[in-house]
Design brief:
Layout lengths: L1 H8 L2 H34 L9 E3 L8 E3 L1 H32 L7 H17 L8
Antiparallel strand pairs: 1-2
């Protein structure tokens, strides 16, 4: 049971996923700082004289009924920024590298085995096979 767990943890996809989560978490902090420092003050300009920020109040004298629109806009901007940067910085270059460095032909297992067999037969015919003394 522990061997299976070890194999699972050491699989390439799990390690790649762990690295992606750590990098993504660090990147979210950068984008959040950007939106808190630049986007939120810009949104506050549109909030008017209301101290609570961009939004509207359902009942005039109850602050608990204030619906904040600013954090929703900020979250949407965070999402779009993160998605765009990850796409252009990671996905596009990885796709281009995969196309450039991958083999032009994709073979099935049977096709590969047939090629190996044919190469071994050629070696035996040309005298490159095993020699018995």
């Amino acid at each position: 049971m522990l061997k299976g767990f070890k194999d699972f943890l050491l699989r390439g996809n799990v390690v790649d996923l762990a690295v992606a989560v750590v990098i993504g978490t660090a990147f979210v902090a950068i984008v959040t700082a950007f939106t808190d420092g630049i986007i939120n003050p810009l949104l506050a300009v549109f909030g008017g004289t209301n101290d609570m920020g961009l939004g509207f109040q359902l009942i005039a004298d109850k602050p608990a009924t204030f619906i904040e629109v600013g954090p929703i806009i900020t979250a949407a901007i965070n999402f779009v920024l993160i998605a765009a940067i990850l796409y252009f910085v990671l996905v596009l270059p990885a796709t281009a590298a995969k196309k450039r460095f991958s083999s032009k032909e994709d073979f099935t297992d049977n096709q590969l085995l047939q090629q190996i067999r044919d190469l071994m037969l050629e070696q035996q015919r040309s005298g490159g096979g095993r020699h018995e003394n």
